[in-house]
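Final report, section 2: Outcomes. Of the targets proposed, Polysaccharide deacetylase family protein is the one most frequently requested by collaborating groups, and we therefore present its record in full.
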Amino acid sequence: MLRAAASAAAAGALAAGCDPKRSADDSASRPAGGGPTPHGTGRSAPARQPAARPPTRAPGLPAEIEHGPRDGHAVALTFHGRGDPRLAGALLGEAERAGARVTVLAVGDWLDEQPAMARRVLDGGHELGNHTMHHRNICALPAAAALAEISQCADRLRRLTGSIGSWFRPSQTQRATPQVIRLARQVGYPHVLSYDVDSLDANDPGAPAVQRTVLDGIRPGSVVSLHLGHAGTVAALPPILDGLRRRGLRAVTTTELVT
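The predicted structure is given below as tokens.
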């Protein structure tokens, strides 16, 4: 089933991209408690949408977080949010079927093109964060330009979800400069999210290589860097999750990992 889903999604990536739209949130007009609509139709109101988490604050942890507790049984799989939404949806579906929750760090211009993906991430029980507006080399930018990269993506997230997102991860770097950490805090992120395991999946080495790299490097508390929009990553996710289960580890959101 996985290979078929990944193949279909990859084939779809060669076609014209879809841009699903959602109607504006009408939660203000819904009655509390999911009872009948006020118009007396007898139909149940739609379930209230999951709330977007505010930026995570983890007292006692550094300004830049690379991993969580090493004495626990959890890890965080984090995904740089960009690429074909069909591949992104396939990957989230694989995670949900396995009972895993992930963290997606979305690029702002991707949210402009695929606004429904913000809600899709949250609806699946995952968490959403900021990965800059245009995915530029943020550590090489002057302060004003770097601030714009962070704040513009935060604005997109706020408009789509009501929150600037749980985390900020700098683009094109594993670790942030002191300037980027300061600017992220200025926008509202107490921590910058780094990682200790790089899957190297953005190079498209194939699913077995992605699986091997992740499972060879991961340990309790690890934060793993992965990417949406790559068919090999979709195919690698189920065996990665199987490997974690065999080691007694579970994939949780980064906030769950560190708080």
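The radius of gyration is 18 Å.
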